[in-house]
What does this fold into?
Amino acid sequence: MKLLVRSTLSTLSLSAALLTALPAAAADVVTSIKPLQLITSALTAGITEPELLLPPEGTPHHYALKPSDMRKLTEARVVIWVGPGLEQFLQKPLSRTDAEIVTLLPDSVAHEHGAETQMDAHDDHDHDHDEHEHEHEHEHEHEHEHEHEHDDGHADEHHSHADGDDPHIWLDPLNALAIADLILPSLQRAYPQQADQLAANRQAFEQAVRSKDAQIAAQLAPYQDNGFYVFHDAYSGFVNHYGLKQLGYFTVDPARKPGARHLAEIRQQLEQSKAVCVFSEPQFTSAVVTAITAGLPVQQGELDPLARDAKAGPQGYIDYLQSLSDAFAGCLQKKDKKN
It folds into this structure.
């Protein structure tokens, strides 16, 4: 799977004077989701603040654009999104804007298995998670033979993450650097007079990411053998990069309730003490997590794949990475202290 920057500008030969003469409303940079806003805002520090399309409490899996959202797209110079494998709701609206569109995963589509992105080359670790995904994929195919049954909550998925096709690419810090490299040329075309500052911001961002990456690797190293479950299959980038032991997930599509059979399998694994922590997410109820862990010596934590509470700015993505690391370490180490 290749990354792509698609230009939909009527012409890229517009002079800098014409670009700077555009009204303020047309100067906006729009990002589809909060994590992309965090990365972009580090690049545009001191120049402009990227606008966020999806509200922090929303989810890209199921979202309907409002008229105000459409105005943001049509007035933007640059629009940044992951791709159709994550934000399907944007496919048609993006065809109606003259903005330069940065598409990070253009080939990602629902139910596409076995694809590999350029950024997946950073994932050097193989864990039990991959084996579980393979088993889940087989079960998923079986369930499609009975589409009237939605017991396992995986029918009609909006995206699939099997075999490395996880669209949550921002959760690997090295992917964030690759994302920044893809975004930078479009920003420099939109703000030619600030091209040097944008490049300097990109270098500062890389230094900050690599420094934080080393700190997090040291923080999480003691917990690499501690198994855990996540609510939503979204964390392979972070998990693989830091060598963590994810045993499985409750659901692929977070808007669908996990089925009884799948929950029974997780409960059995927890009873066998194969996991020390189960993570929920702030966007969705943790009631199912609470129920499945009732009476078991398993810690509960919370992970946010969409960075809902993170603040945009030069430090925003760095702080978000640290919050994820703290969430993992906090939940996994509590069990350690009892052993």
